Known about the structure:
Chains A, B: Belongs to the class-I pyridoxal-phosphate-dependent aminotransferase family. Chain A is of the alpha/beta class.
Amino acid sequence: MPTISKRGEQMPSSPIRKLVPYAEAAKKKGIKVYHLNIGQPDIETPKPVLDAVRHSNFKVLEYSHSAGNESYRRKLVTYYNRFDIQLTHEQIIVTTGGSEAILFAFMACLDAGDEVLVPEPFYANYNGFAVEAGIKVQTITSHIESGFALPAMEDFEKAITPRIKAIMICNPNNPTGYLYSREELEVLKQVCLRHNLYLFSDEAYREFCYTGEHFSAMNLEGLENNVILMDTISKRYSACGGRIGALVTKNQAVLDAVMKFAQARLSPPSFAQIAGEAAVDLPVNYFDEIKAEYQSRRDVLVEMLNKMPGVFCPNPGGAFYAIARLPIDDADKFCQWILESFSYEQQTVMLSPATGFYATPGLGKNEVRLAYVLNKEDIRKAMICLSRALEVYPGKTLQRNGSVLLGEKH
Amino acid sequence: MPTISKRGEQMPSSPIRKLVPYAEAAKKKGIKVYHLNIGQPDIETPKPVLDAVRHSNFKVLEYSHSAGNESYRRKLVTYYNRFDIQLTHEQIIVTTGGSEAILFAFMACLDAGDEVLVPEPFYANYNGFAVEAGIKVQTITSHIESGFALPAMEDFEKAITPRIKAIMICNPNNPTGYLYSREELEVLKQVCLRHNLYLFSDEAYREFCYTGEHFSAMNLEGLENNVILMDTISKRYSACGGRIGALVTKNQAVLDAVMKFAQARLSPPSFAQIAGEAAVDLPVNYFDEIKAEYQSRRDVLVEMLNKMPGVFCPNPGGAFYAIARLPIDDADKFCQWILESFSYEQQTVMLSPATGFYATPGLGKNEVRLAYVLNKEDIRKAMICLSRALEVYPGKTLQRNGSVLLGEKH
């Protein structure tokens, strides 16, 4: 039998999905599982967005332009204009989800053996795309104590080697929820200019900012040829299944190269491009309600977490994720145990161990990521479950006097 | 400014799309262009398939399972059963078009530096996916004189080196239209078993066979662990824009590896999975009419081509492509010239130079690919244009005595 490739072996399993069998087993036992583990929002996809597809009346489901329908790209120009991002439609290549935008950027800008520098914790699937592209993710650690703020410029200077060709951020951040400030982006600009690096900016959660305005890497003056924006309609319009994203840059050589990758796979999905185009026409206040909803969920989640003995959760500035430090020995064990061996009033909660979001071994061992994609009532119930679980978990590290045994060390 | 990657430079441009600016210029001059250059069928997507999407009533456009909706995969099992292919739904991974199935197979089975052996002429985008995966396409030449039949076993034996890890075929073939016989597939089986190779079988045109029954590589007994089927709904149901395909194999290690690639990109498009699922429920005789239509188009095309002085076009057994040898000096020049400098009654025709489908330099220089994706009346008009063009083309190689000057040599 022929063997699979080394790349196939090296390809990481999804750290989020490996707990799925335990959740399924819990459900079979009649236990209700609150899913705070994945970024699948429960928010309804806006009706006009779905209706645009449902009312479409073409006769042939044709390939679109490899860069996406021109009408959609022109519409996206008006979308970006709202954020003072000035573009032409030819600077936008519509991709199959944000995922493909990331893969295309890796492939077009980096060669096998090159490296991309990412603040950790980071979106774990960057690892998968790196393996596909034969490149390596190097990390620079951000810390829960500072709410996962951007590491200092000196730390970047120390981390940069000749193999590093790009810095990559997710802003606001998945998994930390941290919203990078304009000042932090200016630091990145200096570093990228000094070392001639690309800046890959994943801005999937642009609209969901609670502690300030979003500042896009596309607005860094003088960095136009270095910045590549990865975008997606998945979270913005609760349209994850559409698989429509975009790669945006003013660097013509990158556009030309990415276009060749886009042509090889022929076109992005046609149905969801119709949805994406309709989404740009939603009233501008569409996000007000959604943002207020996420913000109030965040408030409930973070407040309840920080009231639990030994728990610390910095208040996230954007997206819909938070990372909390728990008084536990091992987040992977805990997240499995809470599904497999625990329930409270026939309920439990599914969380993501933060270890999957760090590259440095040992980091995140007492941290979990929580996605606040459920309504507030469910979040409250989930937090009650978590609180009870922390009281009885065999690997708890909280002492009777309130001090934490091991947790702080990790 | 940071530079693009070597991979980005090596990535081939689409050989089909490079003539697009000339076609656009012709249209601006008021010339009607018959598009025989791309595999975008004019056949309407079946109404029940589009209606399934239009009548869908979900509220949230969610991620599907990374392997595709289970209901769709179970439906695909019944589809494959019609061809005596026995499977479980867990042996099917739904992909974003057939394109992604090809990329996943390359990535999961081959490492950088490995090679895949493909009979040429071949679908040019295999080159693009090979560059993405860091692998190399090696070719074994099939010949227009034999209608592009599979090269002999001895030719395969000569072509196989330790770097070759897989043989890849497209059956029926794009770009030649050749339908591989069961006997030819048995030859491939012997070669694959002897050298422990994967057999990648792209069967996008399975339903469109005119000269015999389709025999799937999945039905090669004893080769179950070597065969990977790449499939797509694009041509089958004239649903190219859906971007739904599938990777099918009985090799569990490959399924496990491919699943990790599938998880990294989260899920295939949701809308078109609904379309694909509805398509399996079309009446089984749905293809009778479509196939009869393509076959009658083929008959018109091939007959008219072979009546032109100095032209030879073998009769294709399947798909909707034909390769014709023309009495011309250079197919690339000719295909540009016919758009740029020729028209007959304000009409012209767009063809694909066959050079783009060969890897061996010089081959295909007097051959073009024609996709019979237009109605018969348009095909007739296009053939009249082509016939007139061949009379006046400055690089024509046909002499007054009927002999061809250079064409046969290439």
